[in-house]
Amino acid sequence: MERTGTTESVNRMLEHVSLPRGLWVRQHFPAEKLEDPVRALEAEFASPEISGLVKPGMKIAVTAGSRGLAGYVPLLRGLVRLLQAQGAEPFIIPAMGSHGGATAPGQKELLAAYGITEETVGAPVRATMEVVEADRTEAGEPVWVDRYAWEADGIVLFNRIKPHTGFRGEYESGLVKMAAIGLGKQKGAEVVHAGGPARMAERVREFGTRAIRAARVLFGAATVENAYDQVSRVRLLTREELFREEPLLLAQARGSMPRIMLEDLDVLVVERIGKNISGPGMDPNITHTYLPGAAIEPELRAKRARRVAVLDLTEETHGAAMGIGMADTTTRRVFEKMDRDATYPNCLTGGVTVSAKLPMFFDNDRLAIQAAVKTLGGVAGSQRSQGPESGMAGSRCRMVRIRDTLHLGEIWISEALVPEARICPDIQIVSGLASLEFDQDGNLL
Predict the structure, then answer these.
(1) pTM over 0.90
(2) Whose CA is closest to 275, among 234, 322, 309, 236?
(3) How distant, in Å, are the alpha carbons of 106, 126, 225, 331, 398 from that of 337?
């Protein structure tokens, strides 16, 4: 039989799969936030223990990572101005391991996508993949540091503190990890990841501590965000303080994480994933789509929805589709947007292949969601329509639809979850029951 490349047979198998009705709900999380994060930054910098570290004429490297931080540009611009007011000459360096395709132009382009350019922050952006061996571990492994950072008179580590997506430890996503992997560029990231997922916590601590002590790190600038992707705290920490204080900020960040308040899901629909959302595209702390081998509690893994459908990539991710391998179904749109040069370097550096594997992909959102439902088996909505029983079947599917894992204030839930939502004190129903709406091309409205 001649191969045509069409999906007519597949589409026919899915066209009668019934989808549940549902409604929109608002999840209420603690919402502590700073009304003016830049002013909080200025207040922290006014401390003599911090401002006294900056001397006139010092060339200071300020790190910028590959995640989309709340208040990213204003805070970086504010930090640059504070350093300049002390007579220093700050510049921005990408500190993101192998992201951006593991190239200097790619990393600079990634920052530009967040609005971080010389014009917006008031300091040049200097990108290189060249590294200097700053130290060696007791086992003889090299600790690599970005060449521009190593040659600077001082380094300021700027990053958000947040629970990591693949391990638990004293230091997770934050300043120490940025020193270990971000400043290490591709070579440093590869060395740290060489220990495997089970040893990530201890290796982040060891390599990060050595990099901070060997390089000219002046202080760290840390933010914590609330569940609504807003800045709730800003701290400037001396080199010695950051080792003590980062675990405390991590505990605060963990308590501020958003979540999907309804559990035991059949299908989770994620409208978009991307590196600006989370390292693995969608934060496994929300979706429980943890990578195999990740050092995560088994009870959290068990909370994963039976099927996960991912519908799109963010523009800011520039084709990097890390995490798509943790989905069960996706769309042709994702397949066409995926850039292997932007995606595979992470896999090759971290030694993890499953993250970039392609799930079944379908022509549009409707088919991707229908395929997720059909393959459930035990959920009657996965059966072909047999008249009036089809509607009853679809109504039993426990489905949640989210925009992405950063925005969980409002989510869509299926009819089967409504009784639980009604008795949850932190969930407010904000719409009536209705069918999912699709445009003429079969994509969600």
Answers:
(1) no
(2) 322
(3) 16, 28, 30, 10, 29
